[in-house]
Amino acid sequence: MELGDRSYPIVIGSNLLGSYDLSRQLAGPHCLVVSNETVGPIYLERLQGSLPGRNVEAILLKDGESWKTLSTVGSILDRLVALRAGRDTTVLALGGGVIGDIAGFAAACYMRGVSFIQVPTTLLAQVDSSVGGKTGVNHPGGKNLIGAFHQPRLVLIDTDTLQTLPDREFRAGLAEVIKHGAIADAAFFAWLEGNMTRLMAKDPEALAKAIRRSCEIKAAFVAEDETEQGRRALLNFGHTFAHAIENSLGYGEWLHGEAVAAGMIMAAELSDISHADRDRLQRLVKAAGLPVAPPPVGPDALRTSMQLDKKGKAGRLRFVLLEGIGSAYLSNEYPENRLRDILDQAGHAMPRPVL
Ligand SMILES: NC(=O)c1ccc[n+]([C@@H]2O[C@H](COP(=O)([O-])OP(=O)(O)OC[C@H]3O[C@@H](n4cnc5c(N)ncnc54)[C@H](O)[C@@H]3O)[C@@H](O)[C@H]2O)c1
Ligand SMILES: [Zn+2]
Fold first, then answer.
1. From 296's CA, which of 107, 155, 215, 279 has a CA 20 to 30 Å away?
2. Which atom of ligand 1 is nearest to the CA of 131?
3. Could you tell me the pTM of the whole model?
């Protein structure tokens, strides 16, 4: 990841956890591993093998997005204070995006910022959330409302961790991989078309290649635009619709990646591209076992949620549209009637029972 003097390596491969020596990456002798009650028991011991001779402290948080709060960050900070951790402490995140976001934010806050290492264990975290330096937590007033940019010193991606990841979570991560191909790299998209079966079978070599290319694409967008003024916004392809789906259904009903999958299909329909390109995207999303249409929440629910989406400026929505497979742009010019037809696919709101 190229960010001048804050550049850092992303190491990807199988059988890294426990064999890759992280010692040289530690700022000092002390480190705190932040994980959760699901991932910790499976991988913590293996991670300790990567920290030979170190006094490794660990904190296991409860599992789930609902724990991504300031008070959880508070509990990590309390632990660091209790350990009398100094400025040369390293915080390691071992888990999915939730753990990475929380641990990264704690690392950003403690003593105005200590060193941070990401060991992402979900596909989504490996191809998306561990790259780019965004950290933070939710607030009752909004998702990811509180946070900071804090770049890790290293990202260690062991593809073997995906073997224990629930299939549904794995497929959700594939949505972001497909997104990276669709917005930035036609050759990678074509490679995904040819290798989706291997990926679904969690073939280590195919996984490493898909993760590496995904990280490169995300890193390139971030390096160009670290604080999201322009091009980084293209990473939101499918996300205006996805957020509306998540919002209308209630967060947690569909996984984020599932909503992104349907959202990408909707954004492709709004784009002025060939039928052939639309078909290719639809086929690839289907091959990854992901939804190609929104759930039946009703067009009004989606429209209302979209108006609330933060990308809306001056009343008109902005969408990331495709120019073709492998190329995207941001626009607020789109045919209103086509948007209406796309939203109509969400059917009509299910009638509420009258009690
Ligand atoms: N910082 C960013 O740039 C960024 C980008 C995208 C998403 N995010 C954030 O990421 C979060 C979602 O991350 P996620 O999809 O990884 O969800 P998650 O962290 O909740 O992980 C999903 C589930 O899988 C479990 N799990 C993780 N790794 C496992 C493994 N190897 N084996 C078995 N179980 C495992 C977790 O305990 C959890 O139950 C959201 O909070 C989102 O806001 C951040
Ligand atoms: Zn996303």
1. 279
2. 3
3. 0.94
